[in-house]
Design a protein that fits this description.
about 190 residues; mainly beta; five-stranded mixed β-barrel; 8 strands; about 10% helix; disordered N terminus
């Protein structure tokens, strides 16, 4: 139950009111996860009760191509521990709603990530969160923490994304929050 409450809170942060700003694309390698040995990852899938918001709640809806997966973090822009998130860049391919333009390349964050186990264990999540991690395999270096049943981001794949602008509650002030997405878009 604690997982559900904590993760629902973190996932809900992406729906907060955005702040318009110019975003500089990150310059990173193409896929930070590609060099991680799959045998060195322990999967932790959470079952999160998710509120499917209406389209009016999103700042941007459109088709986007994932250009990079730069890495993962579990500390937000305010120095607070949050559910691990992936960050990188994406390219806007089609716009259904919002001010972004076709061809724009912007930074993104997406809750769920492959992250170093030590980084998760060192973060101050408050009561209960680390108790939920009691069954960690000691021989694994990375944790793949995500909502069960969600789509994994892949470099080069195209998705229909529902995003919010960066805000004071976003994991990163320079990145749009992917709040919801549909399966790879053909």
């Amino acid at each position: 139950m604690r997982k559900l409450i904590i993760l629902s809170l973190f996932m809900g942060l992406a729906a907060c009111e955005g702040v318009a700003q110019d975003v500089e694309p990150m310059t990173v390698e193409e896929d930070a996860y590609a060099s991680i040995d799959p045998q060195d990852i322990q999967e932790l899938a959470y079952f999160i009760e998710y509120h499917y918001p209406s389209e009016e709640e999103f700042a941007f809806i459109g088709v986007c191509k994932i250009k990079t997966i730069a890495g993962a973090d579990n500390i937000n822009q305010n120095g607070e521990a949050v559910f691990p998130y992936t960050f990188g860049t994406l390219e806007i391919m089609e716009v259904d709603k919002g001010d972004l333009k076709v061809g724009d390349i912007v930074n993104y964050t997406y809750y769920g990530a492959i992250i170093e186990k030590d980084k998760v264990m060192a973060a101050d999540y408050g009561d209960g969160f680390l108790e939920d991690l009691e069954d960690l395999q000691s021989d694994k270096t990375y944790l793949y923490m995500h909502n069960a049943g969600v789509i994994d981001l892949e470099v080069g794949q195209t998705y229909l994304l529902y995003m919010n602008e960066p805000s004071a509650k976003s994991p990163r002030i320079d990145a749009y929050d992917i709040s919801f997405m549909r399966y790879p878009y053909e």
